[in-house]
Structure formats: C-alpha cells, structure tokens
Design a protein that fits this description.
The complex is a heterodimer of chains A (about 200) and B (about 90). With about 200 residues, chain A is mainly α. Chain A has helices spanning about 1-10, 25-50, 60, 65-90, 95-125, 135-165, 175-200. The termini of chain B are far apart. The chains are: A mainly alpha (about 200), B mainly alpha (about 90).
C-alpha cells in the first residue's frame, strides 16, 4: 500500500522527458503557438472587413467602450486569480487552489455573460451575423474567443471537482499549470482584440 | 515570484488598461496609434513573461510560442499587404 501511495504521488512528474522538459508543457506551448495562427487569421479578416458595413450599423454606432472596458478588466483580473491558483497548487495548498480556481471561473463567467449581453444588444440595434462583412467577421472573432473562455471555465470547474476527489495535496499541480497557460493565452488574445477591434476607430 | 509580485503585475496591467481606454476619450493626435500599440504590446509581454512564467522557464518554450506568434504576424501582415490594407 505504501509503495502504491508513493507511486501515485510521483505520478505528476511522470511526464518529464529525457531532456528534463515536460512533454505536456512542451505540447501545450506548441498548441498555444498554433492558436496564434488561428486568432491571427480571424483578427486579420476582421481588420480587412471592418469598414464593409453595407446598410448595417458601423462599429462606432454599436460599440459600448465603457462596458467592454469593464469586461476587459474582469478578464485581466482573472489572470491574476489564475496565477494565484497555480501558485497555491505548487505549494500543495488544495484549499487555496480550489478557492482561486473557483474565483477565476466566476470572473470568466462574468466576462462571457457580458459578451452574451453585448451580442444581444448589438442584435437589437440591427447588427445580425449576416448584416454585413463587418458583423460576420466581428461575431466570428469574438465568438471564437468566447468559446475559448467557456472551454476554459469548464476545465477550471472540472479541475475543482478533480481536486475534491484527489487523495494527495498538490498532485495535480502540472495539470493546473497547463490550464493556467491556456487561460492566460485567452487573456492575451483579448488584450489584442480589445485594442485592435474596440479602441482603434475604423 | 511571490503572490505580492503577481498582484503588483496585475495592478500595472490594470493601470495600462485605464491608459488605453483614456485614448478613446482624450485626443492624443498622431501619437494615438503608436501609443495604443505599444501599450498593447507591453501588456501582452507582461502576461506572457510573468503570469505564464516564460521569462523564468526553459527557453525552448519561448521558442515554441514566439515562433508561432512571429509566423502569424508575418503571414497575416503579408496577407493584409496583398489587400493593400496598410495603404488605406
């Protein structure tokens, strides 16, 4: 039994390769590098079509900068709570990890809720998905980002459940670090979207 | 890095965000676009370096990520240039 316990506790180190670099972490960074290409394509498409409004409303007519600024701030602060969760996990503090993961998920949910509200407001102002090239590219870009945040929230809540059932404190530290990398990536994508899409006028 | 260090980084990020939003209301003239892009880049690098620990981690991770990022910037800048985006 004692052997089994030691074996299980060492499980989270099992992904290290002969080079000393974690394969999981290497894979995650490779994935994030490829995600740059995905969002780069979506952002470029938006930049190209943002002036093609047709008969529909222009970005300046629909964007609510104060509201989006608050949403951006909420997502930015969720990066802080995420890094605090990773910090707690490396200290084998499961209680702190659970707390910060939950706060991060709540902040993420607030952001997604704000995005749903924003989309609803835009729709009521006559900006549907097919209204213009601007609207299609805008909804595709921000929608893809929203889906990424939602996937992140699901991973965070799943991790909270896994920690509750975990026998050994801090045994999921590497997994939490990977979720953290994904979450911060979603945040940096929004940093770019907020500046290029919302703050720079057409 | 300590938790207090992370909080300090977050406060700096929040302050830069406030500055970014101020450019929407205050006329910065020809400095508007460069200032906004510089602030965006600073925020981006700060999150990647400190929150994602890239500054303190193995350099191969930086290579993986920045290779993808630079490739994306290069490919899509070329694509936008093809559509004469930078001339408009």
């Amino acid at each position: 039994m004692a052997d089994l316990a030691v074996h299980k506790e060492a499980d989270h180190n099992a992904h290290a390769s002969s080079s000393g670099i974690s394969n999981v972490k290497l894979g995650m960074w490779l994935f994030l590098g490829s995600e740059c290409l995905l969002f780069g394509g979506l952002i470029s498409t938006y930049m190209l079509y943002r002036g093609r409004v047709g008969q529909g409303p222009t970005p300046a007519q629909v964007f609510d900068i104060p509201f989006t600024s608050v949403s951006s701030f909420v997502l930015l602060m969720s990066s802080l709570t995420m890094v605090l969760a990773v910090s707690s996990a490396t200290k084998k503090d499961d209680r702190g990890t659970t707390l910060w993961l939950t706060v991060t998920a709540l902040l993420g949910a607030t952001f997604v809720g704000g995005q749903v509200y924003e989309f609803t407001a835009f729709k009521s102002e006559g900006l549907g998905f097919g209204t213009s090239l601007f609207s299609s590219s805008f909804y595709t870009l921000t929608g893809f980002h929203g889906v990424h945040v939602t996937v992140g929230i699901i991973m965070l809540m799943a991790m909270v459940g896994i920690i509750q059932r975990s026998e050994f404190p801090g045994s999921k530290a590497e997994t939490i670090e990977m979720i953290g990398l994904y979450w911060h990536f979603v945040d940096i994508v929004w940093i770019v979207i907020f500046t290029l899409i919302y703050l720079i006028p057409v | 890095m300590s938790n207090a260090g992370y909080v300090r980084i977050a406060l700096i990020l929040g302050f830069i965000t406030a500055l970014e939003v101020s450019t929407y209301y205050v006329d910065f003239g020809p400095l508007f676009l460069p200032a906004l892009l510089i602030m965006m880049s600073i925020k981006f690098v700060m999150v990647v370096s400190y929150f994602m620990h890239l500054k303190f981690d193995n350099k191969i991770f930086s290579m993986m990520f920045y290779a993808g990022l630079i490739l994306a910037i290069g490919v899509y800048s070329a694509a936008l240039a093809t559509f004469k985006f930078f001339l408009s």
